[in-house]
Amino acid sequence: MEENTLIFGIRAVIEAIESGSSINKIYLQKGLRGDLFFQLDKLIRKNKLSTSVVPLEKLNRLSKHNNHQGVVAKTSPIEFHDLELLIDKTLQQETAPLFLLLDQLSDVRNFGAIIRTAECTGVHGIIIPKSGSAPVNAETIKTSAGAAFKVPICKVDHVKDAIFQLKANDIKLVSATEKTTDSVYDVDFNQPIAIVMGSEHKGVSSSVLKMSDYKATLPLLGEIESLNVSVACGAFLYEAVRQRL
Q1: Nearest 5°: CA angle at 243, between 241 and 245?
Q2: Helix axes 229-244, 108-120, angle to 10 degrees
């Protein structure tokens, strides 16, 4: 499977979006106008796709000087899963569901490392928002050691939508946060559960914390105030493994 596919040209990108292709990012030349561009812009907004306005030189490099018409799109190398269908499938298994919800995680290396750990710990699915999240690109896949092809990944319009779906299926949410004194070791991971990890700089958002069933922290015995998010995620996941063995 190709690591990344580039699509260039306004019409070609429109057709890719309409066909349901998983698009990581669309690069746009500043100042584009015209009916066809406005049609593209409408689709971008409707599907909440990530875009970046870039100089003409970058578009030329990406497209290798083919006729890009001011638009180049990068598609994802994997197919994303439908969250509702994945939850239904997971509930039919004997093992209690274990999901990961990544709230605005932005670094592709952290994302890849988390995917790799998720595969090793039996996570049933990873949930990310369509916008504001690290993409699944070549670097993500490399860091994941190929685990990105093995762990189902779901993209949702909004994190809150995913939370409502999880809660509707009696899957509890535990958010990893420093804004609590409750320990991760006091959480019951034998029940259906989704672990929420936040962004590298802000952690889990306050609105998601309010919707969580549990807030948990890891003990820090040194002077540094926090762990790398992928390391913290690994600690949470292996506590779940320890309890489930």
Answers
A1: 65
A2: 10
DSSP assignments along 132-194, one per residue:
SS----HHHHHHTTTGGGTS-EEEES-HHHHHHHHHHTT-EEEEE-SS---BGGGS-TTSSEE
Q: How confident is the model at residue 3 (pLDDT cuts 50, 70, 90)?
A: very low
Cα 235 from Cα 114, distance rounded (Å): 11
Q: What CA–CA distance (Å, rounded) separates 188 from 122?
A: 17
Q: What is the mean pLDDT of the chain?
A: 92
Measured CA to CA, the distance from residue 44 to residue 26 in angstroms comes to 9
Give the integer Cα–Cα distance in Å for 3 and 208. 32
Distance CA(78)–CA(230), nearest Å, equals 21
Of 99, 104, 49, the residue nearest 76 (C-alpha): 49
Would you state the pLDDT for residue 2?
42
